[in-house]
Structure formats: C-alpha cells, structure tokens
C-alpha cells in the first residue's frame, strides 16, 4: 500500500470536497486539489497545492494523483447537470489513478442508491433498488468501486450521509430550497412537513472521513458506512433551530411554511435542476433514516455538532447572519 501522506481531492473547490481538503490540511496531510482553468499549472494557496486539470481528463487526474495514497472523489458535474454523461467517466479516471498508486478512494455517498423497499431504516447492506436516474448512476458508481477494491489495486471507503448543510454547502436543499442565501432569514420552507428526514452537517461528515482514513489499514478493502447525522423526526426541527438561532441574534422569528412544490412542478419543464428536484421528492414523502451502528462500532462514536451550533455556522457561511455570530 502507498504509505505517503499525500492526498488528492477531486472536487476540492466544492462543498464537501473543500471541507475535507481543509480538515486534511489541518490534520497534517499534504493536500492537492484539482481545479479547472486555474491560470497556472500549480498554485499554492491556504496550505493546499492546487493542480490545473479537469476530472474528465484521465491524464490530468493521473498527473495530479501521482504519489498520493488517498484520492477523495467529491466532484459533481457543474450545476448537477449532465449526470448521465459525466459522472461515471470522472469516477473511472479516479479509479485508474488510484490503481496506479495503490491508493484509497474516499467517496461521499448518498441515500439515492435506495428505493422505498429499503425504508425506513437503512443498513449498508440493504438491497439497492433506486427509483431515479441519479440513484441508478450511484449504484453503478459503487459497483465500479467494489470491482476496483476486489482487484487488490485500490481500497475504497464510502461514507453515506443525509442531505448536506454547512457553511460551504452551497448546492444543498438547505441553501437552495429552505433558506435564501445572502439575506436575513424571514422564511424557512419545509420540503417534507410531518415526515422524518435526515440531514448531515458537512464538517461532521469530513471529520468522519478523516477518522476512517486514520484506520484505513484495518478496514475492509471495500468499506461502507452510514452516518446518523441530524435526524429531523417530524420534518420541522431543523426549521425550528433556524428560528431559535435567528431570534438569538436579534433577527426576529422567521416564518415556517411548506415548500412550494406546485411551483417547481410548473417550472420543471423549462429548468433541468427543478426536474431533478421533483425526481427526488419521494425522499420527502416518507421517513428515510440510515443506521450508523457499523460506523460507531469502528470509531466508538460519530462526530456530531449540536444542531443549533451547526445551523448558526451554516447561516453565517451563507451570509444570512453576521460573521461575528459564528
């Protein structure tokens, strides 16, 4: 196994990729980030070595990954568009680079792999029968990773978590559907009122990955773990936390209203992102929860930031509260 402390984060300019990159850097890793149109072959900034390159270009990924013992695959197509064309080729490039370096691949996973037959409490080994196109692609991604691990040339750690929120989670339900970024919070929309839902605070997800990486030699070659994150038992507890945090900062008490799904349905024929939201609505219509027993058995506990603290930091990062509130 590659025993260096060099890591490549593919997608380091995104939400989860950026959070993992920063925490790895702070933990003493030599971190590389891959970014398109960087303006120079290599740029050193904030303790991270940025490499110019495209995740769709196998040579770019291979060059950036040279000498790395870990590759964090946290890249998504811009705007989450063209999934069917881009997602699997990008992953194949990461797998090829990991095999060349006998490296460990870390993948942030989702609940999209699963259909209603696996609900309401999902274990890592539950049957994966997705209902959506994105879910089918996620299943294919994990199959390819499992094959790479079975070859003995790479190892894999998958961490599945709920809907992300956090200071840098721009492309998330919280930042795009529940609260408006960049302005004081006056309204919180509930996508699934009355229905239990699982959320994951990005810094907790990144910390979980770091702790698993510290134990990677003792883990199975193809290791999958579920996070419990923040369980919103009735679909309103996250919104109530927003109310408390905003009120504590003198911003009054925001209103809570059901998410306007009818508007999404009307506009979806014209906007690809809205069609994607509608496709995922089944996850808001019944309780969906992941069982973290396997993770706790390995780590002893799951990293967990108290909800109001996590919400406050998220709102500050979104520009909805002054930075002094953090």
From TrEMBL:
Identify the species of origin.
Andreprevotia lacus DSM 23236
Q: Which InterPro entries match?
A: Epimerase_deHydtase (IPR001509), NAD(P)-bd_dom_sf (IPR036291), NAD(P)-dependent_oxidoreduct (IPR051783)
Q: What GO molecular function terms would the record report?
A: aldehyde dehydrogenase (NAD+) activity
**Superkingdom, taxonomy of origin:** Bacteria
Annotated coiled-coil positions are none
Pfam families the record matches: Epimerase
Q: Which residues form the NAD-dependent epimerase/dehydratase domain?
A: 7-220
For this protein, the record's SUPFAM superfamilies field holds: NAD(P)-binding Rossmann-fold domains
GO CC terms, sorted: cytoplasm
Tell me the leader sequence span. none
Q: What is this protein called?
A: Nucleoside-diphosphate-sugar epimerase
């Amino acid at each position: 196994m590659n025993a260096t402390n060099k890591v490549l984060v593919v997608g380091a300019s995104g939400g989860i990729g950026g959070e993992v990159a920063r925490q790895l850097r702070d933990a003493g890793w030599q971190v590389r980030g891959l970014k398109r149109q960087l303006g120079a072959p290599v740029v050193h900034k904030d303790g991270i070595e940025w490499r110019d390159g495209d995740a769709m270009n196998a040579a770019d990924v291979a060059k950036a990954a040279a000498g790395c013992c870990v590759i964090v695959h946290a890249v998504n197509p811009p705007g989450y568009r063209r999934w069917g064309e881009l997602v699997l080729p990008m992953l194949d490039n990461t797998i090829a680079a990991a095999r060349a370096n006998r490296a460990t691949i870390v993948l942030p996973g989702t609940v999209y792999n699963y259909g209603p037959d696996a609900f309401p409490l999902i274990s890592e080994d539950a049957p994966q029968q997705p209902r959506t196109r994105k879910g089918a692609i996620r299943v294919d991604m994990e199959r390819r990773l499992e094959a790479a691990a079975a070859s003995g040339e790479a190892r894999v750690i998958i961490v599945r978590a709920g809907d992300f929120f956090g200071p840098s989670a721009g492309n998330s339900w919280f930042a795009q559907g529940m609260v408006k970024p960049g302005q004081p919070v006056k309204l919180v929309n509930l996508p699934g009122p009355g229905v239990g839902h699982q959320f994951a605070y990005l810094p907790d997800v990144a910390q979980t990955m770091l702790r698993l990486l510290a134990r990677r030699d003792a883990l199975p070659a193809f290791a999958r773990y579920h996070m419990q994150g923040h369980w919103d038992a009735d679909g309103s507890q996250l919104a109530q936390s927003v109310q408390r945090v905003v009120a504590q900062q003198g911003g009054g008490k925001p209103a809570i209203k059901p998410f306007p799904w009818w508007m999404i349905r009307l506009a979806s024929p014209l906007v690809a992102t809205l069609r994607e939201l509608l496709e995922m609505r089944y996850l808001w219509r019944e309780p969906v929860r992941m069982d973290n027993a396997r993770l706790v058995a390995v780590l002893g506990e799951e990293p967990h930031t108290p909800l109001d603290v996590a919400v406050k930091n998220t709102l500050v990062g979104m520009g909805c509260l002054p930075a002094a509130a953090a």
